[in-house]
Amino acid sequence: MRYYHTRDTLFVRGTFRAASTGIDGGFGEVSTIFNHTVPENFDHADPPRYLREIAASNGLDNDFFGLLTAVPMQYLCILQYDFITAFVTAGVTNPNPNPDQDPEHPHTINIVVTSREGLSDGALLETIITATEAKAQALRVMGYDFTGTTTDAVVVACEGDVAHTYAGTFTETGRRVYAAVLRGVQEALARQQGRVSRKKPSFFIFSRYGGDHWVEWRPDGCPYYPCHFKGQACDFCYCPFYPCRDTDLGDEVGCSAGGTVWSCSRCTLLHEPAVAAYLQRNPEASLAELKKYRASLRGKPEK
Fold first, then answer.
1. CATH no. for residue 120?
2. Cα(79)–Cα(202) distance, rounded to whole angstroms?
3. Of the candidates 284, 291, 286, 289, which has an alpha carbon nearest to the alpha carbon of residue 3?
C-alpha cells in the first residue's frame, strides 16, 4: 500500500480487495482509493462521472473507489496501528438527526481503512461496522448528540492472502481499527474546527514505548533528530514503502512480542535530501526507481 496527497486529494494505491459505502460503492478489486475535496457549494448532476473525471485527470484507471468531501485535505489525519492504517477527514455541519436541514456549508466524515494483512469479505464488511461504531463513540466523547452526518462514507481495503476472518472489536483487526478511527475522528474534527492548527495533514502512529499511546509525528523539534546523519531529510520519517522487505535496505528481526518484524533502522534512502525531494516531486515513484535515482547521484549502478 502506498499513499500520497495533493492540495485537494488523498490517493491510496495498492492491489486491494475493497468494499465502499460511497458513490458507486460495493465490493471490488481496486488499485486506487481517493478522497477528493470539492467546493462547499459543489453541485454536480452526475457524481460517478465526476469521480471518473478526477481519476482520468490523474492518470488512473477506472478500478477505483472515490469519496468526496468539503473538508480541505490539510485537515486529513492518517493513523497507523501496526498493519492497519486509517485516513480520516471530518466535518459535522450537517448532522444526521436533521435530515431536512440544508446547511450553507455541508461537510462529511469520510473514513478509509486499509490492512496490510488480508481480510475475508465478511471481515471487510465487519470493518465498516467497527469503524462506524468508533466514529459514533468519538462524536459522543466530544459531546455531540448525533452519530454522524447525512453524507458519511467508509471504504475498507486489504492486500494479501486472507489472514483474518473477523473484524469485530474483540479481534486483533477490530481493536486496531476501532482505536485508530476513535482517535482519528476526534483529531480530524479538532483541525477542521480550528482547535488544532496544522498546515499539512497530520500523521499519528501507535507506539508501545513507555506504554501504549498515540504519537503525532511532527518534524519540528523531533527528539530523535538526527536518527541517521546530520542534515538528513525528515519528510518521510515513517516510510510510505514500509514494510518493503528489500534486503538491501532492511532486515527481518525478532520482536519482543514474539515472531519477527521488519526493521529498516539501517535504511537511509528517504532520509537523503535529494531522494526525498525526488519522491515529493514524483509521489508514485517505485522503490526501485528511487534506488536507481540514488545510484545515479552516486555515479554507480544500484544492485
1. 3.60.70
2. 8
3. 284
Torsion angles phi and psi, residue 169, rounded to 5: -65, -10
Measured from the Cβ of residue 149, the count of other Cβ atoms closer than 10 Å reads 23
Q: Are 214 and 226 in contact (CB under 8 A)?
A: no
**Prediction pTM value:** 0.89
Domain that holds residue 234: 224-298
286-291 contact pairs (CB < 8 A, 24+): 287/241, 287/244, 287/246, 291/248
Task: Indicate if 75 and 164 belong to the same structural domain.
Answer: yes
Per-residue pLDDT 10s for the chain (303 aa) are 899 999 999 999 999 999 999 999 999 999 999 999 998 888 888 999 999 999 999 999 999 999 999 999 999 999 999 999 999 999 998 787 655 554 444 579 999 999 999 999 999 999 999 999 999 999 999 999 999 998 999 999 999 999 999 999 999 999 999 999 999 999 999 999 999 999 999 999 998 878 899 999 887 778 888 889 999 998 888 888 888 889 999 999 987 767 888 898 899 999 999 999 999 899 889 899 999 999 999 986 655
Domain count for the chain, please give it: 2
